[in-house]
Design brief:
163 residues; mainly alpha; 0% strand; elongated; transmembrane helix; EmrE-like; EamA domain-containing protein; membrane; TMEM42
Length: 163
């Protein structure tokens, strides 16, 4: 179970890298985030940073550039680890891609108020169902291989005792 978890974490890091890229390259996206943060700071602790909105936007873009490198690095480390821990590289890739897809959409909806259509929701549901079937099939295959391996070991022991 650790392999799929690492793959999902890698997918989340990939999604955060893409959000960082959007913040780094889109003035409107970085302005949306800084405006929201400035509003939160003003209402919670009374800190008024509206005169520094332009500078805050530029800082957000610089942090976005750093986030691209940071999140991509962590994503590759986790994805490589997941390929070692999963029953197949297909399983690791599927979990990574699906979690990336879903997490990107959720962050896009929360931060940038992007629209998620019914078609997107149905497609995501099908992807998750496919992951469930893929993971169950891999678990059953591993159990079968282990039982055959153990059975082969028992047969070899019985042959040794007869001779």
């Amino acid at each position: 179970m650790r392999g799929p978890l690492c793959a999902c974490q890698a997918g989340c890091c990939a999604a955060l890298a893409s959000v960082s890229a959007k913040v780094a390259t889109s003035f409107d996206a970085s302005r949306t985030i800084t405006t929201g943060l400035i509003g939160i700071l003003r209402t919670t602790i009374g800190l008024d940073l509206i005169p520094y909105a332009e500078e805050s936007t530029m800082c957000a873009q610089l942090l976005g550039i750093a986030g691209i490198f940071l999140f991509n690095t962590v994503m590759w480390v986790l994805f490589t680890k997941s390929m070692h821990l999963c029953s197949s590289t297909l399983e690791a890739t599927a979990f990574n891609t699906t979690s990336n897809f879903i997490f990107t959409a959720l962050v896009g909806k929360l931060l940038f108020n992007e629209h998620l259509s019914l078609q997107w929701c149905l497609g995501s549901t099908l992807m998750v169902l496919g992951l469930i079937f893929l993971h169950q099939g891999g678990s059953q295959r591993d159990t079968t291989i282990q039982s055959k391996h153990l059975q082969g070991g028992v047969e070899k022991d019985m042959k040794r005792k007869k001779t």
